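Weekly modeling sync, notes
Attendees: S.R. (lead), two postdocs, one rotation student

Agenda item 3: backlog of single-chain predictions. S.R. asked that every request posted to the team notebook include the full sequence so nobody has to chase files. The rotation student volunteered to paste the first one in as an example of the format we agreed on. Action items at the bottom.

Example entry:
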Amino acid sequence: MGQTPSNGKPRDTARDPAKRVRIILWIIVGIIVGGGLIWYAVFLATKPAPTAAQPASEAQLVREDSHRVTATSTEKAQLVEFLDFECESCRAAAPLVEELKKEYGDRITFVNRYFPLPGHRNSGTAALAVEAAAQQGKYGQMSGKMFATQPEWGEKQDSQATLFRTFAQELGLDMDKYDAAVADDKTRDRIRKDVADGTALGVTGTPTFFLNGEKLTLNSEGQFRQLLDAAVK
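Predicted structure, as returned to the notebook:
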């Protein structure tokens, strides 16, 4: 039988341990949920927020501020790439794209647009760093740095913003301007605009290429070159 404490109320000694266990379990669950909320808040603070979908009729494949990475003497075509700096396929395609820029860059305008994928923890942070560098005329250098170092930081779950800042220092950027650009909502909006256009145009993964407005389905390097050859004839 249960004993009676000094307050006169019976105490069930068999139930007390179970009650304590339940309380401890609830505390643990609260800590886990609280920690998850904190992590999610940090995640949102370092990644450009998703942009509301816009009608395809309002989407633009190339905008005035899009990054044109070749200077053509006589433009005969445009090749637009939507890319994610944490995407392994984008990194794998980068050497070929560089070759194609050298071969066709005098006739084809190559355009890069941001498309950080939601499954990549630092893709948005990388895009912010690249765009901040672009504001100081170092888009190509910073984007190349991101792909070259991707094995070092890709797929990590903690923010790589500090590492990306060291890249900016190595490129000799004005760090006050860089920090201000990274923190500026206008920089995030610039990236969100690219994502909104890409989504409206049917981009679902990276890299995705459009040649003269047509979304490409690529099967081989040879096919890619054939399409570019046909576009410049």
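Discussion: group reviewed the output briefly. The two ends are 97 Å apart (CA to CA).
Action items: rotation student to repeat for the remaining queue; S.R. to check formatting next week.
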